[in-house]
Structure formats: C-alpha cells, structure tokens
Amino acid sequence: MSKKPWGGRFSAGTAASVEEFTASHQFDRELYKHDIAGSRAHAKMLARQGLISDDERDAILAGLAAIEAAIEDGSFEFKDELEDIHMHIERALAEKIGPAGAKLHTARSRNDQVALDLRLYLREESGRIIELITELQKAFVKLARRYLGTIMPGYTHLQRAQPLLLSHHLLAYYEMFGRDRQRMEDCLKRINVMPLGAAALAGTGLPIDREFVARELGFPAVTANSMDTVGDRDFAVEFTAVAALAQIHLSRLAEELVLWSTEEFSFVTLADSHCTGSSIMPQKKNPDIPELIRGKSGRVVGNLMSLLTLLKGLPLTYNRDLQEDKEPVFDTVRTLASCLAIGAEMLDNLEFNTDRLAGAAGSGGFMTATDLADYLVTKDMPFREAHAVVGKVVAYCIEQNKDLPGLSLEELRQFAGVIDRDVFALLSVEGSVESRRSIGGTSSIRVEEALARAEKELGMA
Ligand code: ARG
C-alpha cells in the first residue's frame, strides 16, 4: 500500500488496477516546465505573504530546480501510484527538502494548479503557432512575388471559370491564414488569464495575493469566479477550434497540390526532397506530404469534438473527466505545428510549370464568356439578356469546334449587332485578367497592390 498525499481518510490502499486506470503522468508530464514555473511563483507569493519563511521558499526553489534538471536529463522516476505530474513533483520535493516541501501546496489545489499549467502551456504554444502561421504566409507571398505575371485558369466547381493570375490564387491563401492568425491572437487573450487562487473551487481563507502571482507569471489579469475557474476549459476548446479551422485550410491547400501535381494537371512539381516513391512501382513520385496534411485534418477535427463532448453536461465545478482534456490538446498542438512547418517548407521547394498553366488558360477557350457578357452590358444590354446571348455564342462555338477569341466579327454580330472590333481586346485572357480592376480583383495592378501590402505586413518589404 503506497502512501498518497490524499491518503489520510483511507484505511485501505488503492488497487493497482485503479492506479493504472487513473494515472495521467504518461501524458501530462508534458506540462512539467509549466507546473514548476507555477510552483515557483506560488512559493514566492507564500513567502511574501508570510505563509512560509524565506528559507523555506529558497529551499523550495532549489528543490524545484533540481527536479526540473532531473526530468530534463531523464533521471526522474515516474510511477502510476503518484497519478499525475503535479503529485510527482510535489512528492519529489518533499523527499528532497523535507518539511518545507510539504508546505508548497498551501492555499492551492490540483484543480487550480492544472488549470494554470494548461493555460501556461497553451499560451506558449499558441505563440509558437502564430509564428508558424506567419512563416507559412511568407512562403505564399514569396511564391506570389516569384510568379507574378503567370496566368492560369481559375476554377469554380473544378471547371474552368475565368482566367486569373497565379499570384492572385496564392494570395487567397495568404488571406485565409491571416484570419487564422488573427483568431489565434484573439483566443490567446482568453488563455492568458491567471487561475491560481481559486483553490479547490471556492477560493481560500488564507491571505494569498493572486495579483502578485499573475505578475510573476506575466498574466495581465486573474480569473473572476473561483468555481468557473476550476471547471472552465473554454480556452482549450477555443484553441482547438481555431486550430481545426487552420488545419482545414491546410487540407484545402494540400488537396490542390495533390491535384496539381498529377500528370493530368501538371501545374506544379514538388521537389524530389519532399516526395516519396513507391516500393513496387519504380516510376512513382508521390505527394505524401500534402496527403498526410490532408489526412491529419481528421484528427484535429476529432480533437475538437472530443473536447466539446467532454464538457457537455458536465456539472460545476472540477470533475475528473477534465483530465481527458490534455491528450486532444497536445495532439492538436503537435499536429498543427508540424503541418504548418512542413507545409511552408514544401512551398519553398516547389516549382510551378508556368507554360503548362498558361497553356491551360490557352487562348481563353470559353473562359472569357463573362467578359463578352460584360461587354454587351456596356452597350446597354441588360445582363440577363447578355448572359443568354453569350450562352448561344458558346453553343455555336462548340458546334463549330471554335473558341471565343477565334470567332470573326461577322460571326459575333449574328448574335448581337452592337458588337464591334474593340471586343477582341477583352476576349483574350490577358485582356480579361487586366479588365478585373475592382477592389480584390485579379488584374495585375490590384494583385501588385495586394502583394505589396502583404509584404509590408509581414516585414518582407
Ligand atoms: N490529473 C488531474 C487532471 O488532469 C489533476 C487534477 C486532479 N484533481 C483532483 N481533484 N483529483 O485533471
């Protein structure tokens, strides 16, 4: 029978099966640094408030430093009977420094302690993810600059729709990930609130100073309601939701790269260094990185569902269920961070096949049909009528095996007498692209502005 920190009221020992079932140290040791940082601040506060002596505080700080070093060099011993990272560190401290170690848990519960650890962890990791998102955005901006001027077909329904600049397509991702970055920054505000002092659930009768602990740990504010504090994991849900959306954005990029690197599209060539081969088909070069990124989005969305379901119907305040919050959070951080990093690396190492892209846009095919309709609108034809007229023109082209720029003026005039020679400038892909000067459009003047803005925002200019 092992002695538990909470063993006082028990007369029988815990079954080994229960110790194994309830233990979380296998995964929550990930929080050791944050647990120790929180304990340091707490010990300093206890001494300042006269709840422990300065000597006791110094012994605690020295003991914590030794424990941190032991965990880092792998010599620290973990065992199921001590449940979680918090009890492991507390027990090791008591063994190392004696009675002073047993005073560290004054005015603290594992309930507010674990909330603090998770907030410290997510504060650090969301900062790292914001940096990784920024690096990915830079990779898009570099490509947009490098391929400025390249025309390609733009798609809706995965059918050729209108010609546009490749850089415009790339900068769409810059915007998408920019929103992810903003969401992460916003979520960080709610992560960054200091929970310690809520104690088990109702606060403490001991004269603690929560504001001091917050300052020590760099939190701008302390949580308001002790009950909410120990039962709240909204910040973890929010983090995971933001991460899931970013991961979904990555999966859209991944899908385009998988598609675009097929022989059928051949829009892009992924670097040999960032592809893998087949063990049976010697000719294969597979886009495993984007495929895995696409596949991993499933687990991040799953993690979000896990956390939401974990909280569903959970009564106030702390319940042991909440121990199940950690693995989805850790997995989300690891998965998203690795996908963002390898995604940026992959972008830095790819080549667009500009001839192939321009060839696909070709002389325009039917992709300038909207331009022809818009042209008719400038000749005072209502847009719906213009749409119908151009539909007939396209049907005629298909029948005659021609494309729009290949029609003669006489042929075009059969459909609308108002058509003049000036229409041909618009029916070319270049003319079509350059005409789209509305804010956010694909003309080179708008794309260059957008690129300059992005470069400035990312400090690349
Ligand atoms: N390992 C626990 C968790 O992760 C720490 C808090 C335990 N609190 C308790 N009252 N048993 O949630």
Task: Explain what the structure shows.
It is a single chain. With 461 residues, this protein is mainly α. It folds into three domains: 15-106, Orthogonal Bundle (Fumarase C, Chain B, domain 1); 111-358, Fumarase/aspartase (Central domain) (Fumarase C, Chain A, domain 2); 369-427, Fumarase/aspartase (C-terminal domain) (Ribonucleotide Reductase Protein R1, domain 1, Orthogonal Bundle). 60% of the residues lie in helices and 4% in strands. The protein contains 19 helices and four strands. It has helices spanning 16-22, 25-28, 32-48, 54-73, 85-97, 110-146, 166-191, 210-216, 226-231, 234-260, 288-311, 326-348, 354-361, 369-378, 383-400, 409-413, 423-427, 429-435, 444-457, and strands at residues 151-156, 159-165, 268-269, 351-352. The longest helix is centred in the N-terminal third of the chain and has 37 residues, at 110-146. The N and C termini lie far apart (66 Å). The model has no long low-confidence stretch (mean pLDDT 95). The structure holds arginine.
